[in-house]
Amino acid sequence: MPRITRVYTRTGDDGTTALATGERVPKDSLRVQVCGTIDELSSHVGVALAQRISGRLAPELRRIQNDLFHLGAELATPQAPGDAAPRGPVIEDRHAAALEQLMDALGEGLSPLENFVLPGGSPPAAQLHVARTVCRRAERELVRLAREEAVAGPNLRYLNRLSDALFVMARFENVEAGCTDVLWDSRA
Predict the structure, then answer these.
(1) Which residues contact 144 (CB under 8 A, 6 or more apart)?
(2) Distances (CA, A) of 18 to 43, 86, 115, 158
């Protein structure tokens, strides 16, 4: 566990930042961009948690924040050619499978979708929709990074499942709060 005695280091004043490997890269590099978007996503999940979200969802969202920290750490520690094993915590297929199980369980209490759902409803549900859109952006950025550098397959699968899970959680939260989904009116 790292011990942080001071937050500022002044080493980034030149527009670079250090990856977990010690390698310095520009702060606007695609890898750093993806890590930043994953951090932003975790922050949006934290806002949803801070809004008195359903007791059923709170532990799941805390687990997701932990998973997102693992994902960020993995992406901040690129594998060197010839590395036999990852250097720290990683996202595995089991993480995406856990999201699928969560969606299946939560979906049992939801009505079938008959139209597109607009973000809204209760404040925590609306915040989960914001998190979902940030998750989709992180996924797009990770796909772009994967075209240039090696990215583990479970990372892409996890973000794809997570955006779906956040959608299902938003719908579940609205039911728990006594709100109905906000449906798209194509004739408006």
Answers:
(1) 30
(2) 22, 18, 46, 25
**For the CA atoms of the chain, what is the radius of gyration?**
18
DSSP secondary structure letter of residue 121: S
The tens digit of pLDDT for each residue in 12-57 reads: 566 766 666 667 776 778 999 999 999 999 999 999 999 989 999 9
**Residue 136 neighbours by CB distance under 10 Å:** 16
Residue in 162, 166, 142 with CA at minimum distance from that of residue 96:
162
> Which residues does residue 182 pair with via DSSP β-bridges, in sequence order?
118
Distance CA 33, CA 138 (A): 9
| H or E element in which residue 25 lies | strand 24-26
pTM equals 0.90
Contact 159, 139 (CB under 8 A): yes
Distance between CA 124 and CA 175 in Å, rounded?
Answer: 12
Q: How far, CA to CA in Å, does 57 sit from each of 67, 71, 78?
A: 15, 21, 32
As a whole number of angstroms, the distance between CA 99 and CA 169 comes to 11
